Amino acid sequence: MVVDDPASVICKFDIYVRKQYNHLEQSMKKHYPWLCFDADGTLFDYNRAEATALKKTFQSLSLPYESGYLDIYRRINQGLWQALEKSEITPAALRFRRFEMLLASLQLHGAADRMSSVYVEQLAICAELTEGAYEVLQALHKTSRIAIVTNGLQSVQRSRLARSRIRNFIAELVISEEVGAAKPQAAFFDAAFARLGNPSRSDVLIIGDSLSSDMQGGAAYGLDTCWYNPAAEHRPVDLPRITYEIRHLRELLDLLD
Questions:
Q1: What's the Cα-to-Cα distance from 223 to each of 8, 103, 127, 151, 205, rounded to whole Å?
Q2: Does residue 38 have an active-site annotation?
Q3: Where is pLDDT greater, at 187 or 236?
Q4: Kind plus residue range of the DSSP H or E element containing 218
Q5: Which of 4, 5, 14, 38 is catalytic?
Q6: Stated pTM of the model
Q7: Quick one: how far is CA 165 from the chain centroid?
Q8: Record: fold of 29-44+127-255
Q9: 56 Cβ partners below 8 Å, 6+ apart?
């Protein structure tokens, strides 16, 4: 007799519980007048955009580029964005510091400020969407107002949205760099709600891929949350309650009225 290993059993149980929970939620569809989506990794294919922008930046500056550089950059960048969430660094400093650290790590000579400028320019023209994003927003915007709430950079997010097919579905775009606070800070959500016209918190659902900025931030602010989890990551036990969990954006059409 073949016995599954404990990790496999836990994974299968997690999938079963999620399916049963979402089935229960689907039987009680809820309407939210406002749907607040994260941008990078939720609506926009950030992994693809990041890889394209980094490679083109090196090429533009005549610097040698190897595929392994992307993973190094991502580790540096992720750490700095986590610091931003904790108010340990400003967006302006983050732009420069990540390339200063990257050049030092790769032992390459270059100007971090110029590298930062070229990278932001390249990233701003990458408007590829995650699978199903257009179709889902096209359907949902008929019954709910849609906002994007993001910790991204102003120049990147506004340019990207202007180039995107979803631009006409978005009623509000709230960017941390513009409001002076980042998710998961309450000050960010205060600013976002002011932009939305101060709706009741029960009328707002936040959808995002980040457990820290989106799920913890939204739950702490008293909002229903939807974790977009395409990689089927395990949910940490110490997280606040997540209202919904989905693997694909199209699942929202079964959950929302």
A1: 33, 41, 28, 18, 6
A2: yes
A3: 187
A4: helix 217-220
A5: 38
A6: 0.85
A7: 18
A8: Rossmann fold (3.40.50)
A9: 118, 122
